[in-house]
Design a protein that fits this description.
single chain, 5-stranded parallel beta sheet, 2 domains, 28% helix, elongated, OB fold (Dihydrolipoamide Acetyltransferase, E2P), alpha/beta
């Protein structure tokens, strides 16, 4: 995680630097004595964590947070514990360190920041595992989208193929475009939609997924090669 320090006291800066150096996944990219200097830096650089003193010469740390459009995870540092209640009213603040603080207490704050940063990643992964239910032969089958190898259309029927099952029912292929993540699934033929993560190889106008040979339509080939970043 990239981090910066906004602290006007040199001894406090040194303690934070020392603690940050002891944590392998923390990378200190800059230190500032004034919030105004850090403001322009935050607008042009990617920062995951900010160690922010509440009492700064130009503007208080709490007021400074309110000026940042998309604030990173904030860990407040101060010698005055009375500010703790008011500081936690701001959602972007993950913890509050009262000086002098120990390395163990510092690590606890880092872990809170790490959890805050990783939450959107987990949400993205969960989205990729979205499921739907297919009504096949009067039975509802739960299907995880991420497990689909490909979808085949044959006249009025759709067959959804995974590594463990094939489900066929009456439907149209065009109805599946709104159900699938467009960055992961794309149409390669008028009768086929494939999952890019299972594409093994392409030979001529044939695409291979596991033991399945899928034809590539002439009008779809250019987009297919673009999606696979071949051209």
């Amino acid at each position: 995680m990239n981090c910066i320090i906004i602290e006007d006291e040199i001894p406090a800066q040194n303690i934070l630097r020392h603690f940050i150096d002891k944590v392998p996944h923390l990378n200190l990219i800059d230190t500032f004595k004034a919030a105004i200097e850090a403001h322009s830096f935050l607008n042009t650089n990617t920062v995951d964590v900010v160690f922010l003193d509440i009492n700064l010469p130009d503007i208080s740390g709490l007021d400074f947070i309110k000026t940042i459009a998309n604030p990173p995870a904030i860990i407040m540092t101060t010698a005055y514990p009375d500010y703790a209640v008011s500081s936690f009213e701001l959602d972007t603040i993950v913890d509050y360190l009262v000086k002098p603080f120990s390395f163990d207490r510092f690590l606890k704050a880092i872990n809170k920041a790490k959890d805050r940063i990783e939450t959107p990643k987990i949400a993205t992964e969960e989205k990729a595992e979205d499921s739907i239910f297919l009504n096949v032969d009067k039975t509802l089958h739960k299907l995880t989208l991420n497990t689909i190898l490909f979808i085949e259309s044959d006249r009025n029927y759709i067959t959804v193929v995974t590594e463990t099952q094939k489900l066929s029912y009456i439907d149209a292929l065009k109805n599946w475009h709104s159900k699938l993540p467009e960055t992961q699934f794309f149409q390669v033929h008028k009768s086929f939609i494939v999952n890019r993560k299972f594409v093994d190889k392409i030979s001529g106008n044939t695409l291979f997924i596991k033991d399945n040979k899928i034809p590539i339509g002439r009008t779809y080939k250019q987009n297919l090669l673009k999606q696979l970043k071949i051209i």
